[in-house]
Amino acid sequence: MDPEPRREQLLNAADRVIQREGPGASMNAIAAEAGITKPILYRHFGDRNGLVRALTERHTGGLLAAVRAALAEPLERRDRVEHVLDTYLAGIEARPQVYRLLTHPEPGDPSGAGNALAPALQQIAEEITRAVAAQIDLGADRELLAEAWGRAITGMVLAAGDWWLESRPCSRTRMVQALADLLWGRLAAAADLPSAVLPAGPAPEPTD
Amino acid sequence: MDPEPRREQLLNAADRVIQREGPGASMNAIAAEAGITKPILYRHFGDRNGLVRALTERHTGGLLAAVRAALAEPLERRDRVEHVLDTYLAGIEARPQVYRLLTHPEPGDPSGAGNALAPALQQIAEEITRAVAAQIDLGADRELLAEAWGRAITGMVLAAGDWWLESRPCSRTRMVQALADLLWGRLAAAADLPSAVLPAGPAPEPTD
DNA sequence: ACCGGGGTGTTACCGCCGGTAACATCGTCG
DNA sequence: CGACGATGTTACCGGCGGTAACACCCCGGT
User: Fold this and answer.
1) Cβ atoms of residues B101 and A143 within 8 Å
2) How far apart are CA A95 and CA A90, in angstroms?
3) B156 touches chain A (CB under 8 A)
4) Global pTM?
5) Is A24 left (phi over 0), alpha (psi -120 to 50) or beta?
6) Chain B residue closest to A117 (CA)?
7) Inter-chain CB proximity A148 and B179 less than 8 Å
8) Can you tell me the mean pLDDT for B148-163?
């Protein structure tokens, strides 16, 4: 009736070993952590991708729901965007290793083979697309812009979030501000520096 | 004196097989394409990463230089940004498979293990960071903002470019416009749609 | 003429990976 | 009791990245 609890146990073990060893953890390692051997894992999840998918669904449930809720929050647009950004960053901050697994696509699969965004992030991108298309008046190109921006924003937050998580250059709220400022056109609005034309790149040759 | 030409040949073969089989192509396949066997590849490039690095340096030379030049172009800021975006998209458009290899980090390496951006893109991110910091007056947070934005913009263009390359939803110039508009705060400036509060997500449960 | 060295190439192997086949063991239900 | 399903095992497969050992061939020095 309920093969669930053992499955949960296995997923817990996978969580643990991935948190400890990072993504790329081997099936053997996960099985060992669970106190068993590989074939059981394969019986439960089919293949490695199945395990990852199960982990994904388990963890993105919360994050995706939180992002979706943040997108629908009845706030000023700027506050809403900041809320979404903060929600995402808080999510990846909580379990960095697991979210690295979820957010970084594996290059090995010959299937779709193209997408820069892992499935979990694709869902977020779609959510953003939907929200933008539904809430904001973008004229004739509405659909195209919403879809492009959904991907673009997701990729932006992915890369920026990953960098922030790794080097922790500032607080989370400050990072949220930096990203929201970028989306708010601060790059376009800021004044030029006096020396507008710089002489040459500091390191044109990597010398490596 | 010049072990270069044979090296070039091997890189050509690697290019070919990667263009045909996508990233993830095995060393055996590359060696076979070159009409030789694995150990020779390893003599020349050390390991797979070395081969990838060599390919990277070969291909990103042009792209990176082009981006750097575009960043230094004496244009209006908006035009300059569009020029950079177009340069990047044109680059990945030319050899999709190769650039996929260059732009998607391999999760297997246990070294830094974190960065969402492959080395080639890290370089572009640094270039953007440098240009922003040098050209635009961002006040006290200058360095932090420039670095965060460098990563953010790179990730944005990576994800958006990848999507565009895969589904070709519009012309390149249109895509450039969409991204520049996003950076120019069009998301922030656009009007609300009349039905500002949407009732519910069209698909709150993936039903999968 | 001989020999040595560097580049080119090979076969054969290692350890590890994801994945599978075959077999053993237990609890439960008819 | 017997059948069955879940749980578990050992032992294996093919392929991966990577390496060791050996073979050839040409070219230059004595």
Assistant:
1) no
2) 9
3) yes
4) 0.83
5) left
6) B159
7) yes
8) 96
